Each structure stands twice: as structure tokens, then as C-alpha cells.
Amino acid sequence: MINYIWFGLIFLGTVVSLFTGKGGDISSTIVNSADSTVKLILSLVGIMCFWCGVMKVAEKSGLTEKLAKLMKPVLKLLFKEASKDEKALGAIVMNLTANMMGLSNAATPFGIKAMEEMDRLNPNKDRASDDMALFLVMNAACIQLVPSTIISIRAACNSSNPGIIILPAIISTATASIVGILCCKILQKYF
Predict the structure, then answer these.
(1) Which residues cross the membrane (predicted)?
(2) Is residue 34 part of a domain?
(3) Exposed site from 9, 67, 99, 104, fewest CB < 10 Å?
């Protein structure tokens, strides 16, 4: 459906531009925006490589493992069934820890593994369990201790202080996580 909407917008924009005599302006805008997009992506790739390296150092130094140990007791309270299974809880912990540290590439395989493990524990295979729904919410609203993607974008756009976003990101993602967890726990009672 979204493909039809985009096609309609582009088609209507082209038709209107031809009737109003602005076709040349649109062509030059497309070329200029493509040029600036390529420049942004190239600068973003370099900065992302730097942050991925920093996060790998954090991972190799054991910082992510220490964070995982701190999270385990809290997660045992939140997850009813998954907390009884060490494989499922381990994958959940590693996914959330990797996301907190900005290691989204490393978090994805752990997230898939966590869902597979929770599906193994799920008695009703036709629908997601409460633990699976809670994990999706926690994964989507994960607390970002180092928002490396946003810092990279800000640096690529020549921000004078790209790292100033760290404290607001921690506050906003922590708030989103708490609200999401509370909503899940309340809705679990009714659905």
C-alpha cells in the first residue's frame, strides 16, 4: 500500500510541476539532494566506524558483560517464563546490553536468538507470549547509554557539540522504557 502512496505523491508532484513550469527546478533539486545525501552518508560511515570500534573495545574489555550482570536480577523480575530458562534470559540480556552500548549490529543476532528461545517456551505457538511482547517493547525503547548513531549524524552535520545528546538520550530512552514496561505489565492482565 505504501508503494502506491509514494507513487501517487511522486506522480502528482511531477504532473503539477510540468503544468506550473517548475520541471527544471525539480530536476536541479533532485540532483542537489542526491549529492548532499551521498556526502552525508560518506561522512556518517566514517563516524559510525569510529563508534563501532569504541563499542567493540567496550565489549572486549568486559564492560558489556558487567552491564549484563547488573541487568539479570531486574530482568528475572520482569520476565515470567523466560527468567526460568537460562538460554532465553542470556539472549535477552545480551541483546539489551548490546543495544544499550550502541552495538546494534551485535544486538540483532541476540534478539533473534532471544525470540527463538522464548518461542520454544511459548505453549501457544499461534500468538506471542507476554514475555515476547515485553521483549519487543524493551528492545524498541531500549535505554541508550551511548547513542552512537545520533552522535554520528550530528557530527556529520557539523554540530559544534555532537555528544551533548547523551544525557537527553539517556533520560528520554529510560522514560520510554519505563512507560513501555508499565504498559505491557498493565495490558498483560487484560489480554
Answers:
(1) 39-58, 132-153, 165-188
(2) no
(3) 9
